[in-house]
Structure to design on (912 residues):
């Protein structure tokens, strides 16, 4: 009996070892750590498809917001990260500058520019993995009920007819929005761009990074139009929301990128992941109803759902975005200017524009004061030349990391606040001047003029 | 009702009233796109402030959580050990999870519960001394993940009037356990009948919608259902479980074995168990008592703010249930009749009433959850041999069937039964045994059209 029992125990151990070996053979795999800021809906699709294509690798996804990434990657071992995959161009440029990325071989069929806009690193330290375009999500039913035409470009929603029907993201608070306003400024030029932004903001609700989606707000009919990035709208449409997305004539694009960390200890696995993301199969995942981003592999569009936007054949890009650096260099400054002239004074801005438009509507002849008031109301807070000042761009871009920059930007902002207040006061004064000037011009009520 | 609510109401109403039935009768036709969001809609009649709270909760449920330290302190707290980093990684669009198709595939929306034989302090399972009560595949930097579980299947073919189906029995194996062997013999979970060694139970993520309404069913109703005399050998009893927050025993109603008393406990338990996020309910994290690196990394402060937990719970409470579709369809009507005749409705109780609830839209509602929330012995084929409070190794809570017909529209791989072994409702029916044996026998006698009608009814839910 004792022998039998010992044999049974031995058998159990041998079986255990055997099962262990079988399990190891079947399931032992190499861990691959991917750092991303993509939402779970997108991560889940790529994770499952990559694992199916490469069962020898196990994906471990670490999530960080883009702004929270640099610290992790600057730590020794970079948090064990092998691949960085994110819509965070600034981080990629920084990693490249710090020599933290591995140079990759050229990859056939992957776009490195779209309509002259560079989207990949010229030296292949990172590639674009997808792009997204800025535009307008619209509720056709709400617009139709208002008797308005569907907008086709940014200028179309700047008229007073759209008052209360538009929602705009605040660029300093909504992650994708700085690029959106740069796209408008790039398409229309600095002065005309700000003129349109001011006109839109005069009648819009400003949206923060709150818990509701712009697509919820527009689908519910609370707003007819929302300025946004295409995939939010297209995913909502693919999930049944009664919306459309309008790409303006000049489309501004926001590329996302992928690169391998120099410190990666799983280079083969990392290369397999990058190759998969950029393959036809990986790029086709971008068509998933919960993702709806634009592939950078032109051949992938042959698998696209009907009516899918193709940036390689359907649009011209924003003219002045020619390099990766120009996509970013001004964004922090532009966002700060937006806050100074639109976000902070929003309450007085609404009232000022209302009175200006009312006065203009009542005006019967030429009114130099109203013309001046409007020019002042639409004028950019800083000139294009100032906006191109490298020092100014730098202090706003790096204000959080450098106390001296923070102090300097605070001074700028205080000065801008004052300037905006004065400008509004002047606009209001010019509006008030209107009757007197009209009287002077027509000479009908002489008693109001000075002797 | 909000405009958005009205929109959804209109869409689902239209669908219900006769739009082409893609789900039940024509698998080749694409389902209307809005049905993909069928489990994400708020209850009607929420106030503006309630809707804002609903959206705040939605944001947190969708949130990918971050390993601390992080400058995003409000969403930091993942780990030291975890399975996934977001609720929706397992509950995609608030729906159910699925099982891997084989050992090559990792567990993405499924977890493995662990314990050792015995009864814990409050009558619950005894956690594994090394690995705790759940295997966590991942660890934060410096803390090894616990290893992986892989799923192997043995299969058998069953002839049905609608053709042969393959039933797959899952067997769990552990791969590269990082903190030492779970036991000398890596034992498979199913059909061993053993109650020694490590007890394991694989569970897919359950759906989140309708849980507020289920919580609003009075205990007295459930007690009455338990006492009710039932036909065909069907019994049914309430689980009684420990509420660690209020330090008392309560009837269980959530979880595959009804091992959790409230949605708040269920949420906090999933946060700490699946993601390692501590809350005021579970302030001490998920490290095993011998996992030194984990214990040294574990935050000493609670990671989830009380308001965040409240918002996440509120979001789930306020999730609406999609209405039944195609109720006028002749096949659906016939199928409902078969459902009753087969005694399915004895456990999958079609209609219940909610009581008073803090949330008005949950109060005094007549609901159609198709569950009694009671434990039933489902036979050896489904048994996990892992008792959980009062639930034996072969007892499972009747899962609600509302919304089940949309499961694979929301998540194309959605699984059925506790471990997702069933890839279709038909497979799930053929796994019924134990107290459901008479019902299964009734189904076995159905003609082809009758079985199709039964499925049409279930797909309409």
């Amino acid at each position: 009996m004792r022998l039998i029992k010992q044999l049974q125990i031995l058998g159990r151990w041998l079986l255990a070892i055997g099962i262990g070996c079988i399990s190891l053979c079947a399931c032992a795999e190499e861990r691959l750590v991917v750092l991303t800021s993509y939402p779970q809906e997108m991560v889940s699709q790529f994770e499952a498809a990559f694992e199916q294509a490469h069962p020898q690798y196990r994906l471990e996804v670490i999530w960080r917001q883009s702004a929270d990434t640099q610290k992790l990657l600057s730590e020794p071992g970079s948090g064990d990260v092998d691949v960085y995959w994110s819509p965070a161009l600034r981080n990629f440029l920084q990693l490249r500058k710090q020599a933290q990325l591995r140079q990759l071989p050229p990859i056939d069929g992957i776009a490195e520019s779209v309509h002259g806009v560079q989207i990949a690193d010229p030296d292949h330290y990172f590639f674009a993995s997808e792009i997204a375009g800025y535009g307008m999500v619209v509720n056709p039913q709400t617009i139709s009920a208002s008797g308005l035409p569907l907008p086709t470009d940014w200028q179309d929603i700047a008229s007073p007819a759209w008052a209360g029907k538009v929602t705009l993201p605040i660029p300093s608070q909504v992650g994708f929005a700085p690029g959106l306003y740069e796209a408008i400024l790039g398409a229309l030029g600095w002065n005309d761009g700000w003129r349109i932004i001011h006109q839109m903001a005069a009648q819009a609700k400003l949206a923060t990074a709150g818990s509701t989606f712009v697509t919820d707000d527009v689908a519910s009919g609370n707003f007819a139009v929302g300025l946004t990035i295409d995939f939010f709208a297209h995913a909502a449409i693919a999930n049944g929301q009664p919306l459309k997305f309008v790409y303006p004539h000049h489309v501004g694009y926001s590329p996302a990128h992928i690169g391998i960390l120099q410190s990666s200890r799983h280079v083969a696995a990392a290369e397999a992941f990058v190759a998969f993301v950029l393959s036809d199969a990986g790029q086709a995942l971008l068509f998933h109803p919960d993702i709806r981003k634009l592939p950078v592999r032109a051949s992938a569009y042959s698998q696209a759902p009907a009516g899918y936007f193709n940036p390689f054949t359907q649009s011209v890009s924003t003219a002045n975005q020619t390099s990766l650096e120009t996509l970013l260099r001004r964004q922090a400054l532009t966002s700060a200017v937006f806050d100074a002239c639109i976000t902070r004074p929003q309450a007085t801005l609404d009232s000022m524009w209302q009175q200006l438009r009312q006065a203009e509507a009542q005006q019967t002849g030429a009114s130099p004061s109203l013309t001046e008031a409007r020019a002042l109301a639409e004028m950019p807070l800083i000139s294009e030349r100032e906006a191109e000042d490298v020092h100014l761009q730098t202090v706003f871009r790096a204000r959080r990391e450098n106390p001296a920059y923070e102090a300097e930007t605070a001074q700028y902002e205080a000065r801008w606040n004052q300037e905006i207040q004065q400008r509004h006061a002047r606009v209001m004064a010019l509006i008030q001047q209107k009757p007197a000037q009209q009287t002077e011009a027509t000479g009908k009520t002489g008693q109001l003029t000075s002797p | 009702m909000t405009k958005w609510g009205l929109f959804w109401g209109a869409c689902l109403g239209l669908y219900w009233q006769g739009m082409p039935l893609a789900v039940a009768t024509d698998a080749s036709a694409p389902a209307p796109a809005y049905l993909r969001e069928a489990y994400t809609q708020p209850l009607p009649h929420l106030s503006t402030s309630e809707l804002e709270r609903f959206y705040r909760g939605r944001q947190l449920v969708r949130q990918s959580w971050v390993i601390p330290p992080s400058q995003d302190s409000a969403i930091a707290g993942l780990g030291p050990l975890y399975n996934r980093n977001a609720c929706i990684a397992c509950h995609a669009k608030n729906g159910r999870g699925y099982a891997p198709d084989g050992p090559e595939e990792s567990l993405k929306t499924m977890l493995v519960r662990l314990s050792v034989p015995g009864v814990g302090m409050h009558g619950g399972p005894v956690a594994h001394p090394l690995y705790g009560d759940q295997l966590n595949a991942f660890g934060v930097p410096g803390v090894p993940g616990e290893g992986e579980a892989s799923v192997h299947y043995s299969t058998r073919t069953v002839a049905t009037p609608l053709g042969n189906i393959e039933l797959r029995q899952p067997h769990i194996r552990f791969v590269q356990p990082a903190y030492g062997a779970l036991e000398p013999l890596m034992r498979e979970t199913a059909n061993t009948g053993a109650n020694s060694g490590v007890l394991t139970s694989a569970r897919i993520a359950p759906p989140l919608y309708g849980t507020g309404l289920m919580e609003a069913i009075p205990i007295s109703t459930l007690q009455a259902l338990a006492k009710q005399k039932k036909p065909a050998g069907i019994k049914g009893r309430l689980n009684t479980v420990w509420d660690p927050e209020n330090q008392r025993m309560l009837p269980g109603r959530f979880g595959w074995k009804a091992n959790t008393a409230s949605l708040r406990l269920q949420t906090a338990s999933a946060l700490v168990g699946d993601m390692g996020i501590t809350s005021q309910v579970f302030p001490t994290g998920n490290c095993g008592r011998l996992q030194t690196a984990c214990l040294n990394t574990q935050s000493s402060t609670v990671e989830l703010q009380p308001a965040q937990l409240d918002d996440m719970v509120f979001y789930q409470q306020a999730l609406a249930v999609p209405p039944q579709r195609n109720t006028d369809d002749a096949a659906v009507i016939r199928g409902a009749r078969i459902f009753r005749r087969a005694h399915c409705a004895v456990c999958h109780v079609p209609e219940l009433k909610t009581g008073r609830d803090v949330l008005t839209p949950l109060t005094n509602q007549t609901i159609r959850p198709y569950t009694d929330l009671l434990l039933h012995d489902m036979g050896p084929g489904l048994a996990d041999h892992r008792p959980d409070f009062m639930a034996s190794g072969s007892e499972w809570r009747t899962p609600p069937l509302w919304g089940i017909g949309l499961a694979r529209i929301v998540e194309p791989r959605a699984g059925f039964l506790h471990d997702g072994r069933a890839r279709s409702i038909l497979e799930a029916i053929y796994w019924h045994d134990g107290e459901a044996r008479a019902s299964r026998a009734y189904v076995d006698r159905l003609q082809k059209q009758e079985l199709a009608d039964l499925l049409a009814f279930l797909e309409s839910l």
